[in-house]
Recover the amino acids of this structure.
């Protein structure tokens, strides 16, 4: 708590690597520059740590440099308000037989606008044979503009996967995802959910893509979705979502058999993001408004009819008038 660096694991040199460090189940609060630094390491594990803020806006809560082989960065929860990045990776070099894994992390940048800059919450700069899977990432920075919730590239990215992630920018001035390819290297991007509260959804090599149609003119990403997954947000770090966009829309990887809480994933069609949930008996969501109509602006004192179209995605069939009731609770704001 309030140290400059929480834990620093640094091997002797880039050609003299340390092996097998394990950093697990720690809590870091208000570190000056970094919560965890891992540099010049082989096959180390950083798992189930929680980070509550970094005070230096130009730094990274979790920083990995020149790490090789079967690295594991999993099930960590990082929350920052200072403009710092949650996760920074460069020189993350897995191999064909020992892929590096970055999975099941919840990364939240709820920027307070006090610092002089904002760094993308997930920044995978330079990596090979690395799988970035099942992460949930949220950026909310209404006082900033033009920042991605996740950036994949900037250095050499090769034979990497960016699959099954929820990448959300919830304000009206930033965007979800930036992919910067490197030459003709092969990478795989798919089965993600992108959401942006602004007109700009993603960027491909600096080119604006305002929607999935524009995005797909640059990249083969047919299975990803665009939509607000409505994180529960019972606490600032709660990125659970029960949205039907999430349920059974991911691609299964044996590398990630469980979620951030240790729940077994569906081994055919798991959930997108860090949180896996089972189908509910009844699972209602509003899919559209029937009345009042869009042009209905002058509501009389007696009120106006409200009719909604709802969908049940649960495993049980709901039959109206069959002894069951469905209650809708809503709130309104006046301007």
């Amino acid at each position: 708590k309030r140290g400059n660096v929480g834990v620093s694991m640094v091997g002797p040199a880039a050609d003299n690597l340390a092996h097998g460090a394990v950093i697990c189940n720690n809590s870091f609060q208000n570190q000056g520059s970094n919560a965890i630094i891992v540099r010049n390491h082989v096959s180390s594990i950083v798992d189930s740590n929680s980070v509550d803020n970094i005070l230096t806006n130009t730094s990274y809560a979790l920083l990995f440099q020149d790490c090789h082989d079967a690295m594991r960065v999993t099930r960590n929860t990082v929350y920052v308000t200072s403009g710092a990045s949650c996760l920074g990776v460069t020189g993350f070099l897995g191999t064909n037989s020992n892929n590096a894994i970055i999975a099941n992390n919840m990364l939240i940048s709820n920027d307070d606008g006090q610092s002089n800059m904002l760094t993308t919450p997930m920044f995978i700069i330079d990596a090979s044979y690395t799988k970035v899977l099942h992460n949930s990432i949220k950026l909310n920075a209404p006082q900033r503009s033009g920042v991605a919730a996740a950036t994949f590239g900037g250095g050499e990215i090769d034979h990497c996967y960016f699959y099954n992630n929820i990448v959300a920018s919830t304000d009206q001035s930033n965007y979800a995802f930036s992919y910067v390819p490197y030459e003709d290297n092969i990478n795989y991007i798919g089965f993600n959910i992108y959401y942006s509260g602004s007109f700009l959804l993603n960027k491909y090599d600096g080119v604006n893509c305002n929607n999935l149609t524009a995005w797909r003119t640059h990249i083969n990403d047919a299975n990803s979705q665009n939509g607000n997954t409505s994180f529960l947000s019972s606490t600032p770090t709660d990125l659970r979502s029960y949205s039907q966009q999430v349920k059974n829309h991911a691609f299964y990887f044996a590398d990630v058999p469980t979620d951030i809480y240790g729940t077994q994933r569906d081994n055919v069609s798991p959930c997108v993001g860090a949180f896996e949930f089972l189908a509910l008996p009844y699972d209602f969501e509003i899919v559209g408004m029937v009345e009042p109509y869009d042009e209905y602006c002058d509501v009389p004192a007696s009120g106006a009819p409200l009719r909604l179209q709802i969908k049940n995605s649960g495993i049980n069939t709901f039959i109206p008038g069959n002894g069951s009731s469905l209650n809708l609770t809503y709130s309104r704001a006046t301007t």
About this structure: Residues 251 and 269 are 6 Å apart (CA to CA).
